[in-house]
Every structure is written in C-alpha cells, then in structure tokens.
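F.,

This is the one I mentioned.
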C-alpha cells in the first residue's frame, strides 16, 4: 500500500480501486435496497461517497496521464472503464502491468 502512494500511477490505482468499490456497492447493494426494499437511505450516503471518490478519480487520472505521458485516447479508455460497474478491475489489471 505504501508503494502505491509514492507515484502518480500508484495513487491513481489506489483511488481507482476505492472508487470502483464504491460504485459496485452503489449499484449492487444500495440501488437494490432502494428499489427492491424501499430503503433509499443507503443510496443517499453511497451516492455522496461515490461522487467525492469519482472527483478524486478524475484528478488522479489527469495527474497520472501527464506523469506517464498517456495519450488522450488511453486516458479516455480508462475514464470510460470507470463508467462500467466493476470496470475498476480492468483498470487495475492494465495499470498494474504498466507499473511492473
């Protein structure tokens, strides 16, 4: 974990994992609770947390993009993957391979 925080790519990977987890919880736990069991409170809290983490994800993506000299297309693919539930798994896989 400590090594992840030392580089822009590592920070991006860490933020991506946490943001992806928050998105998965929002989609697969909070939304079914809201619409299946009429319990909207979880969406309110998870939505706020995910929104803040998504902003951190975008900032970390831009910083990693400039430090690693990624193309706009590559950064766009990583951004698009974050829109897919569990897309953070693909992001981590591709970025971990690059970090080695």
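My design for it:
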């Amino acid at each position: 974990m400590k090594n992840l925080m030392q580089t822009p790519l590592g920070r991006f990977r860490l933020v991506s994992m946490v943001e992806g987890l928050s998105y998965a919880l929002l989609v697969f736990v909070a939304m079914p609770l809201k619409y299946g069991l009429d319990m909207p409170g979880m969406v309110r809290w998870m939505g706020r947390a995910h929104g803040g983490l998504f902003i951190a994800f975008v900032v970390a993506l831009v910083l990693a993009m400039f430090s690693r000299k990624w193309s706009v297309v590559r950064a766009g693919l990583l951004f698009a993957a974050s829109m897919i539930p569990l897309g953070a798994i693909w992001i981590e896989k591709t970025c971990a391979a690059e970090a080695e």
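The chain has one domain: 3-99.

Talk soon.
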